[in-house]
Design a protein that fits this description.
The complex is a heterodimer of chains A (201) and B (319).
Chain A lengths: L1 H13 L2 E5 L9 E5 L5 H9 L2 H4 L2 E6 H4 L3 H10 L3 E3 L12 H8 L3 E4 L17 H8 L4 E8 L1 H4 L13 E5 L10 H13 L5
Parallel strand pairs in A: 1-7, 2-5, 2-6, 3-4, 3-5
Antiparallel strand pairs in A: 6-7
Helix pairs in contact in A: 1-2
Chain B lengths: L6 H27 L3 H30 L1 H22 L7 H20 L3 H22 L6 H24 L14 H26 L3 E3 L3 E5 H17 L8 H29 L14 H23 L3
Antiparallel strand pairs in B: 1-2
Helix pairs in contact in B: 1-2, 2-3, 3-4, 3-6, 4-5, 4-6, 5-6, 6-10, 7-8, 7-9, 7-10, 8-9, 9-10
């Protein structure tokens, strides 16, 4: 019920148009969708565009300090999005913030991941943090899929509460995998440039 | 559904369905005959357009049949979707967010509520006076002076085209034309406007494809031709004259008003093309396959509706 309602609302506000650049949802595969992050609605929009059967097994990585801060958000995160909590501040050395994501991948799920770590102002993609590489190198069989979300920062900018309707385009690029000998720096640079390649000129 | 028993409406509907069916038949025949790559592409586009036409006619006719509230809700939704497309391409800034919230969640609903309760006096001035001034004040209060005039001009023009002008289509239902409106016939006047405006678009396209030579506005719309314009406008005006029996007009009056609708529709298409060209895009959206976005379909009617409304109101209405 809530899921259908949220998806309908997202469609109404964004008109959600998908432009595929060599990507197809079928056949299903274990994937990490990584996207630019400019709005709280990023997760919702990308999640709503994934085909229903695959959506159930696709878990957005959600900031623990935001999504687990009120009962209503927690309900949405756990029951509706089936999100995985990620601590943005490392509490102590042993507490690896990526562990819940690894568990989700180990269980055969797919992820929605924002490698910039925090929401940008839109317009340009910030440098990636290392998380994407750690996940990809631990699970080399998982396909990485770059997703560029355009305009959503205008639907619901940082610091605003109510969204306005503006057509958004979601550009999904072809999937790729981490190379067997690829270094962290090379991989991060490649993933970043593949996402940047989707930015409309 | 009382309106469905109107004999004139039934005839008009039969005509519409007849035209659509023959169009689809031509599409099917062409799809079988045409062999060249380029021709196939054109036919595929034609068939996508026809399919969208069926859907649009179905939604439009059903909403009109529901009664006044049906048309008001339909065009409120059209305004909403047109706004969504307009602001996707007109570069608003972060500080415009609150202004847009007012536009979408206050001004748009109030405008259509005024149409629904048929309060003409306030409807006519609500957007051009109150909203026009109010939005500007809200934009100034937002505190950002960066490109202030550019930004606010874009927002105001977007509000005019996508909300105010579009709402003149259902506003036709509140006109008081002696000997016509008392019997609840205004919905046929709405059908007259929409049918003529859309027929003008289609006929200009068809005549242009068949006989177009001379471009009419090469820097704005390279595909529009003098032949298509003249032929399409002439045929659609004749069609309007031929539909006089569903209106309060004589044959000549219906033909002249149809001519005005066609000319304004052409002008609207031209203005919106200039807007798109400025932003470097071909279509406003992808909602209607073959047509583009909803703004691509209604650009003509945006300009035709308010002029048609006020001409009819001035010359034929009692109040």
């Amino acid at each position: 019920m809530i899921e259908t309602g949220l998806i309908a609302l997202t469609r109404l506000l964004t008109g959600a148009v998908v432009r595929s650049n060599g990507f197809a949802f079928e056949p299903p595969a274990q994937r990490i969708y990584y996207a630019n992050h400019t709005s709280h609605m990023d997760t919702l929009l990308l999640w709503s565009l994934i085909p229903k059967e695959q959506r159930r097994n696709t878990h957005p990585a959600a900031a623990k300090d935001y999504w687990w801060s009120s009962p209503w958000r927690q309900y949405l995160a756990e029951r509706v999005f089936r999100a995985v909590p990620v601590a943005r501040q490392r509490v102590n050395r042993e507490d690896d913030p990526l562990r819940p994501l690894e568990a989700a991948l180990a269980a055969g799920g797919s992820l929605i991941f924002f490698p910039e770590g925090t929401r940008g102002a839109g317009g340009h993609i910030q440098p990636f943090r290392g998380g994407l590489y750690h996940l990809a190198s631990k699970f080399p069989h998982v396909t990485l899929v770059p997703v560029y979300i355009d305009n959503l920062n205008r639907v619901l900018p940082k610091g605003e509460f109510l969204p306005v309707p503006i057509i958004c385009t979601v550009r999904i690029g072809a999937g790729f995998k981490v190379g067997p000998t690829e270094t962290k720096a090379d991989f991060i640079a490649r993933a970043h440039s593949l996402l940047e390649a989707l930015v409309p000129t | 559904m009382m309106l469905f028993h109107d004999r004139q409406f039934q005839i008009l509907l039969a005509l519409l369905l007849g035209v659509l069916s023959s169009g689809s038949l031509v599409g099917v025949i062409l799809a079988r005959r045409i062999r060249t790559e380029k021709g196939k592409e054109a036919v595929a586009n034609l068939n996508a357009r026809l399919k969208a036409w069926w859907a649009m006619v179905a939604v439009f006719v059903l909403s009109v049949l529901v009664g006044p509230i049906g048309s008001v809700v339909l065009f409120a939704l059209v305004s909403f979707m047109a706004l969504r497309e307009y602001f996707a391409l007109s570069s608003t800034m972060r500080s415009d967010h609150r202004v847009l919230l007012w536009l979408v969640f206050v001004i748009l609903p109030v405008n259509y509520i005024l149409v629904a309760i048929q309060w003409y006096g306030l409807f006519a001035v609500f957007i051009p006076v109150y909203a026009f001034i109010g939005l500007q004040i809200r934009a100034a209060l937002a505190g950002s002076t960066e490109q202030f005039l550019d930004r606010t001009a874009r927002t105001q023009w977007g509000m005019m085209v996508t909300v105010y002008f579009v709402s003149y289509v259902p506003a036709i239902l509140m006109m008081q034309i002696p000997g016509y409106s008392e019997a609840g016939q205004n919905f046929k006047l709405l059908l007259f406007l929409v049918t003529v405006a859309q027929a003008s678009d289609v006929l200009q396209y068809v005549v242009g494809k068949l006989a177009g030579r001379q471009p009419i506005a090469p820097s704005i719309s390279p595909n529009k031709t003098v032949e298509g314009f003249a032929g399409g406008v002439a045929l659609a005006s004749l069609l309007g004259a031929g539909l006089y029996w569903i209106t309060p007009f004589t044959v000549l009056q219906a033909g002249l008003l149809a001519l005005v609708i066609c000319l304004m529709g052409f002008a609207g298409g031209l203005v919106m093309s200039a807007t798109k060209r400025d932003r470097g895009i071909k279509d406003f959206g992808t909602l209607l396959p073959g047509h583009g976005g909803i703004l691509d379909r209604i650009d003509g009617i945006c300009f035709a509706a308010p002029i048609f409304f006020h001409l009819t109101r001035y010359f034929f209405s009692a109040a």
